[in-house]
Amino acid sequence: MLRSFAAAFCPRPIALLSVIVLLAAVALAGPAARAQERSGADSVTPVEEYAKQVEELKKSYPDLGKRIEDSARSIDEMNDVDKARKEIEELRSVVAGLLGAVSDNGTVSQLGAKALAHGRSKLKSIEQDARFKPEEREFLLDQWRKLVAETERATEDLEGARKEFADLLRTLQTREDFIDELMQVRRASEALAVIRNLTREIRDASTKLKSLIGGLKPPGV
């Protein structure tokens, strides 16, 4: 009875040995496969990383080339003698136009006189106008007297501002050469900023290129 029980619940010796061998093979195959995967990953990862750097560098080169062209064009424009001359001529034209407007016989000098003449004319007109009742006429005359007085003060202020501005414009006309030099200083400062920015961008590209060149070797070497 014991033998039949053992035969029923225990595998045969040969079958049991086969199962043990199979389990051992599976257990050994796992680490070996993982090691092989790691080895393959170690050999692929540096290559992939290098390819990624190459792609990034390829993308950055066109942008850098465009910035170089833009910088060269900007500096050429800053050193353009004809453009500089045109700028000073435009300034001269603006100053001349303004000076004409604020000169002694210009448009601004006539504005206050016209406003005063209109106000005084209205006072005389209302004083002689019989269409209004006495109280209405007196009210209108009082309003116009106030307006004429305020216009006189405003005209005096305008005249003072006009004369000061005209004097400054005349001074500006006599300092055109100095202004031209100041504008050239400004353009040179802008050119310097362009050069410094371009230098910084080229050095950044050089750093990336050095890193790329440093990776030109087989993995593990």
Task: Tell me what you see in this structure.
The structure is a single chain. By secondary structure, this protein is mainly alpha-helical. It has a domain at 85-174. Helix content is 89%, strand content 0%. The longest helix has 66 residues, at 13-78. It is elongated.
Assembly classification:
single chain
Low-confidence stretches are 1-30
Number of helices: 6
Radius of gyration: 47 Å
Order of helices and strands: HHHHHH
For the largest beta-sheet, the strand count, sense and barrel status come to: none
Give the structural class.
mainly alpha
User: What best-fitting shape do the alpha-carbon axes yield?
Assistant: elongated
Mean residue pLDDT: 77
Distance between the termini: 70 Å
SS strand fraction? under 5%
Describe, in short, the structure shown:
The protein has 221 residues and is mostly helical.
Descriptive labels:
221 residues, mainly alpha
Please outline the helices and strands:
Blueprint: H1 2-9, H2 13-78, H3 81-102, H4 107-127, H5 134-174, H6 176-214
